[in-house]
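Sequence, please.
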């Protein structure tokens, strides 16, 4: 009898030690939940960081692509002399078709940012516009050229509504032009480049983007081009 009772007691103890109490189950579930929440939050943070990294890479790629377009068009700028351009005094004059201001640039180029090969020259139009948030954005467009009349018309035409955005918006965007040295003056950056008789192209075009206290600038060199005169 004693042996049987002892065996029953041992079996009860073994069954008791093999199971889990309610408190142990609650603690285990809580720990698992905490681990799962930590893992999910970590994955979420990693995914957000990856997404932000991709956005920055995409933005950088767009910026570099835009800068490449500008560099190609500016380096391919052509000295186009026209004789049908009407100045402010409404009289015909021979001028070089290159107009530059702090917020707009128009010039003849042999390079199309759209890869258009239907014309040999284009009138590139770079202008600074305001977006919906009131910030400034550099936008570029172009017009195919043929004779003097098309050059004069493109040089004086209203800015096109459609265009390609270059770089990210900024608080302020300004363009300037490198004036070559003369006997009287050294080479210097000027804010305006007007189409004048006997004038030449600037040596370079500079674009400055101001975002808060940070200022970025890019300089695009103008290659030496031959004179193209259409009569």
């Amino acid at each position: 009898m004693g042996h049987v009772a002892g065996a029953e007691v041992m079996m009860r103890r073994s069954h008791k030690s093999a199971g889990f109490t309610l408190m142990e189950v609650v603690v285990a579930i809580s720990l698992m939940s905490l681990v799962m929440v930590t893992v999910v939050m970590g994955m979420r943070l990693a995914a957000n960081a990856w997404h932000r990294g991709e956005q920055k890479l995409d933005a950088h790629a767009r910026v570099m692509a835009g800068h490449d377009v500008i560099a190609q068009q500016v380096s391919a700028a052509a000295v186009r002399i026209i004789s049908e351009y009407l100045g402010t005094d409404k009289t015909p004059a021979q001028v070089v078709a290159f107009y530059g201001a702090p917020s707009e640039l128009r010039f003849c180029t042999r390079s199309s940012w759209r890869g258009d090969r239907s014309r040999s020259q284009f009138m590139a139009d770079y202008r600074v516009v305001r977006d919906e948030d009131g910030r400034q954005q550099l936008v570029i467009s172009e017009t195919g050229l043929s004779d003097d009349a098309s050059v004069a018309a493109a040089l004086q035409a209203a800015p096109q509504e459609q265009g390609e955005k270059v770089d990210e918006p900024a608080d302020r965007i300004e363009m300037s032009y490198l004036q070559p040295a003369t006997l009287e003056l050294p080479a210097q950056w000027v804010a305006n480049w007007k189409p004048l008789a006997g004038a030449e192209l600037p040596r370079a075009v500079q674009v400055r983007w101001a975002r808060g206290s940070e200022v970025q600038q890019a300089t695009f060199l103008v290659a030496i081009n031959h004179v193209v005169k259409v009569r």
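The CA atoms of residues 194 and 221 lie 18 Å apart.
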